[in-house]
Each structure stands twice: as structure tokens, then as C-alpha cells.
């Protein structure tokens, strides 16, 4: 008898927990669980009133549904922690492939197989537990139909009579979550059509004279990983930008800065990079796949067709990268082609300073015509510890100099097991290192023909930004030739490396058209 009662209580607690648990870890407070789930009351009454021959199958179906809902809620929590948004039942399944690839590359094939097996077992276990719980509660409730009916009615009356504005007594979060997911499913099912319509419009396709105002310039687009607007409020980062401003000004350079709204946050760098370079809003993997299978005019392709040598320096790429064909680079430098023989610092395969040095050595140091480069740097990628020391450029060599520095191959998710204050400090330090690499590169290798655009790809994880942060990232253009900065005057960006609070904000997908319009002749 005691065992059965314990099983019933545990089943009830499990069902209540699943129904009222928030989909946001920030809201996991004791107060959040002191509520009556209305969905539970309705479910109990439906099962109690059903005929005996139907109740069993209905309880099983309800349990399976509750189990699947639990799995989706866990996915919602995970996506909210990393990407600031819930899981999309239509568009987010492809993201599991790069996640599995990451495990494969970082920990080996056996680890990736084990991860898949454990995931299957976990999902099956959750569904089984939810089904057993609902069936148990259904059986007990039906055996005490009058008592159950009165108890549900009393709970419903209390929820209404005790309700006070601002102090919720009942919860309908499960029903709300289902409605929200249903709405996203509807949008997701039509997203491919919406994207095709957006991609079909391109005012710059086959337009003559593109980028003629930049002839003879080496144009470098550098993505600083996780460099978001939130970083600007950190003293270390603000000091580094102020120092960089003073140094570049002394060297004869000028800079203008603003904000772009990224299509992603916390991760998904490839989608942000594709958004900036293609001029299309890429906020899910389906859009990314459709983009790289299309013939959309990207910025690298536009430069190449305008007689620049177009290169992609991508230290984060460690495997085959067929998507790179979309950008029409003349040359792609993945991690293994950068010549780095030093240790790995967290996720980063190559320190940012070495990445820039490798680009200089392989491209700009040689006798060359104008070069355009897209360089996603990775030193400021989570877990943000350890960060390499900045060294003299002449000492970089093949990277062996880094062997004396503390290094690791910790995965990005390791930040969730550390003190948040320490994580934020490490984040600020890594961003400062990346900014130092960019500024120092301009000081050492810049000239009248260098035009550098550097920007963040997305905001870091919520552990760093806090809840409710925007998706805005800083963007800066640096040049020595006054004519370049004169041409971007109409953008009304702020002077210097750090955009102010009232600096212009535009969608990242608008940048390609803005850039091409500014540096190309007007349409006749």
C-alpha cells in the first residue's frame, strides 16, 4: 500500500513539474512552482469522465504526448541558454548535425556515437516515465471518481477566488507553450517560400562597375567571435577600444562605428557571417542551406568579379567545407592551411594574431593585386579560457612560441560549470585580445590601400549578457585614405572604434547593399 501511494505521489509531482516548469532557466525559482497547472486539472477531468474502455488508451496517448512535450521543453531550455530563443520544431533539426560534428571533431567518433545512443535512451526514458505517470494517475483518479471530481472543482474555484493581480495562483504555461510552438510551426512551414521570395530580388546582380570606388584597395572583413554590444560596457573592452583609437589616430587612420542587429545570438556564427556577406537574413539552418545552394551574389563574389583576389581565411573550419563554394573564393585557408604548429586554446584552433599573420604572409606580403578577405577569428569563442598572450609579430613563426602558454581543448559548454563572474571576466579578456590583434595588425601592416571592416558576429551567451540583451553587435570601418571615410559619411556612423549609445542600428542583412551602393557608381 505504501509503495503504491508513493508511486502515485511521485507520478503526480512529475506531471505537475513538467506542466509548470518554465522554459527559461532564469525563471526557475521556488515561486514559479507554487501554482496549480490548469492543464492538469482539465486532463484529470477528461480522463475521469471517459468510459472505462477508452480511458486506458487515452491515458497512454496523453502520457506519450506529455513525454514528447517534456523533451521539447528541455530543448527549449537548451536553446534559450545558448541562442536566446526556444527550439523551432520545423527549422532547428538541422542544427543537431553541426552539434554532432562538433562532438565528433572534438572528442572522436566513439564519443559522437555514444552521444547519439544516450540521447535516444534519454528521450525514450522520458516518454516512458511520462506515460507510466499519467496511466497511474488516471487509474487512481477513476477509482475515486467522486472524490477526484470534488477535488478538481475545489481547486478550480480556489484558483479563481484567490487570484490577485501580479501574484499568479494558477499556471497555463504548458498551453501557452503549445500555442507558441504551433504558431512557429506555421511560420516555419512557409519560411522556405518567404526566403525564396526575398532571395529573388537582387538589385546588384549583373550591375556594372561594382566596387569601382575601391579599386586598388585591399579590403578585409574580420568577424570577431562573440563581440556583442554587451562587451562595450565592460571596462577592459572599453579601455582597449580607447587605446586602439589613440594608436590608430596617431598612425594616421580614421574609424567609423555603428551597430548591426545579428540574426542569431549566443552561437550560429556561420549564419551571421552568411547574412552579412549575402545580404539575406539567415536565422535558421534551412535558410543557410538554401542560400549556399543558390547563386546569390555574395560580397566575396562581387569583389572577385570586380577583379579582386577573393580569399576566405577560416580557422574554425577543420573538415571539408563544400558550402565554401557558394562564396566563390579564389582561395580558402582552413585551419590546416594556416601553418600553425602551436597548442589549441579552448575552442580556438588558431590564435587570432597568428591567423592575421598567416593571412598577411600568404597574401598581402607577396606581390599582389587588390585582395579581398573574409576572416572569421575564433579566439573569443566560448569557453573564453585560456586566452593566449599577445606576442611580438616577429616571434610568431609557426606558432611554437605559444607552447609555453597555458592551453586547453575545453568545449564551449564548459562555461556552464564555472562561476559566472569568472566567465564574464574571461570573456572580456578574450575580446580585448582579439581587438588588440586587429588594431596591432593595422599598425604593423596597414597602408594607404588597406580598408578594414571588423564586427561581431553575435552576442555571447546569456551567462555573459544577462537576460533580455539585444542582438546588436558593433561594426567598425578603418582606413587611412580620407576618401574612403568621406564616402561612408552618409552612413552617419560614430567616429572612432566604439559606437555610442545613439549610433545607427541596422539589420546585418542590410550591410551588403549599403556597402555595394556606397562604393559603386549610381545606376544610370
From TrEMBL:
InterPro entries, per the entry: Alkaline_phosphatase_core_sf
Coiled-coil zones: none
SUPFAM superfamilies referenced in this protein's UniProt entry, alphabetically: Alkaline phosphatase-like
Keywords: Membrane, Transmembrane, Transmembrane helix
Residue stretches spanning the membrane: 32-50, 62-87, 107-130, 151-170
Highest taxon listed in the record's lineage: Bacteria
Protein name per Swiss-Prot or TrEMBL: Phosphoglycerol transferase MdoB
Amino acid at each position: 500500500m505504501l509503495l503504491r501511494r508513493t508511486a502515485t505521489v511521485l507520478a503526480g509531482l512529475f506531471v505537475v513539474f513538467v506542466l509548470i516548469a518554465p522554459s527559461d532557466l532564469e525563471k526557475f525559482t521556488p515561486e514559479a512552482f507554487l501554482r496549480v497547472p490548469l492543464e492538469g486539472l482539465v486532463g484529470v477531468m477528461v480522463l475521469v469522465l471517459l468510459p472505462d474502455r477508452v480511458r486506458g488508451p487515452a491515458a497512454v496517448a496523453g502520457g506519450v504526448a506529455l513525454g514528447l512535450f517534456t523533451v521539447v521543453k528541455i530543448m527549449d531550455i537548451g536553446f534559450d541558454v545558448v541562442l536566446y530563443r526556444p527550439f523551432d520544431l520545423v527549422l532547428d533539426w538541422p542544427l543537431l548535425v553541426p552539434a554532432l560534428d562538433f562532438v565528433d571533431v572534438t572528442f572522436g567518433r566513439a564519443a559522437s556515437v555514444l552521444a547519439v545512443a544516450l540521447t535516444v535512451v534519454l528521450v525514450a526514458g522520458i516518454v516512458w516515465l511520462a506515460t507510466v505517470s499519467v496511466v497511474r494517475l488516471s487509474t487512481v483518479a477513476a477509482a475515486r471518481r467522486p472524490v477526484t471530481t470534488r477535488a478538481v472543482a475545489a481547486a478550480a474555484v480556489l484558483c479563481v477566488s484567490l487570484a490577485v493581480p501580479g501574484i499568479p495562483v494558477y499556471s497555463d504555461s504548458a498551453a501557452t507553450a503549445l500555442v507558441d510552438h504551433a504558431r512557429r510551426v506555421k511560420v516555419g512551414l512557409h519560411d522556405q517560400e518567404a526566403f525564396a521570395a526575398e532571395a529573388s530580388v537582387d538589385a546588384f546582380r549583373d550591375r556594372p562597375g561594382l566596387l569601382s570606388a575601391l579599386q586598388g584597395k585591399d579590403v578585409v572583413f574580420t568577424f570577431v567571435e562573440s563581440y556583442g554590444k554587451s562587451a562595450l560596457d565592460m571596462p577592459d573592452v572599453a579601455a582597449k577600444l580607447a587605446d586602439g583609437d589613440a594608436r590608430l589616430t596617431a598612425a594616421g587612420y580614421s574609424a567609423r562605428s555603428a551597430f548591426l542587429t545579428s540574426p542569431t545570438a549566443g552561437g550560429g556564427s556561420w549564419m551571421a557571417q552568411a547574412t552579412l556577406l549575402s545580404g539575406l537574413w539567415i536565422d535558421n539552418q534551412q535558410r543557410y542551406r538554401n542560400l549556399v545552394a543558390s547563386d546569390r551574389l555574395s560580397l566575396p563574389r562581387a569583389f572577385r568579379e570586380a577583379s579582386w583576389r577573393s580569399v576566405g581565411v577560416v580557422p574554425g573550419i577543420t573538415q571539408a567545407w563544400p558550402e565554401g563554394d557558394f562564396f566563390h573564393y579564389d582561395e580558402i585557408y582552413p585551419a590546416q592551411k594556416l601553418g600553425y604548429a602551436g597548442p589549441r586554446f579552448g575552442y580556438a584552433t588558431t590564435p587570432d594574431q597568428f591567423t592575421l599573420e598567416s593571412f598577411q604572409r600568404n597574401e598581402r606580403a607577396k606581390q599582389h593585386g587588390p585582395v579581398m578577405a573574409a576572416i572569421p577569428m575564433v579566439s573569443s569563442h566560448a569557453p573564453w579560457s585560456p586566452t593566449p598572450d599577445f606576442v611580438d609579430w616577429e616571434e610568431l613563426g609557426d606558432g611554437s612560441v605559444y607552447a609555453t602558454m597555458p592551453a586547453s581543448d575545453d568545449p564551449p559548454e564548459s562555461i556552464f560549470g564555472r562561476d559566472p563572474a569568472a566567465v564574464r571576466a574571461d570573456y572580456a579578456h578574450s575580446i580585448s585580445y582579439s581587438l588588440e590583434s586587429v588594431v596591432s595588425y593595422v599598425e604593423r601592416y596597414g597602408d594607404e590601400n588597406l580598408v578594414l571592416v571588423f564586427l561581431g558576429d553575435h552576442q555571447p551567451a546569456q551567462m555573459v549578457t544577462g537576460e533580455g540583451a539585444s542582438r546588436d553587435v558593433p561594426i567598425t570601418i578603418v582606413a587611412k585614405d580620407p576618401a574612403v571615410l568621406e564616402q561612408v559619411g552618409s552612413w552617419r556612423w560614430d567616429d572612432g572604434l566604439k559606437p555610442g549609445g545613439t549610433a545607427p542600428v541596422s539589420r546585418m542583412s542590410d550591410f551588403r547593399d549599403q556597402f555595394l551602393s556606397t562604393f559603386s557608381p549610381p545606376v544610370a
